[in-house]
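To: structure desk
From: M.T.
Subject: fold request, one chain
Message: Could you run this one when you get a chance? Sequence is below, nothing fancy, just the single chain.
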Amino acid sequence: MVKSAKEAQPDHITGLHEMSKMFCNNIIEAMDTETETECLIAQSQAIKEILEEAGNNLLQQDSVDQFSAKIFEFLKQSENRIEDNNKYQKENMDGEEEDKLDEEDIAVLKEENKSENELQI
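Reply: Done. Structure tokens follow.
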């Protein structure tokens, strides 16, 4: 939508920036409660595309600071999920046969960690 607005009214930068901020804020708000890594990746990509399309001077310094803090918060949450997966795997490698992780469980954890790494990129 931002791309279409930019093409339709290329000289209306203020409106484009306002729309871009609104969309980014809505996506960030949704990311606060999202638990699926694949969805977080899609949301992150959408923000990236909006920022690229909006161009320079979209955010003032205080907004950049808030945005950066939010991004670092999301990265920390992702790191925590990786650590939790690794801890769970380590704790469940040994023990009773019914509690022990099988190859499929381990593959799922590795895939989840891979998705988390993709999110961080």
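Reply (cont.): The radius of gyration is 19 Å. Let me know if you need anything else for the meeting.
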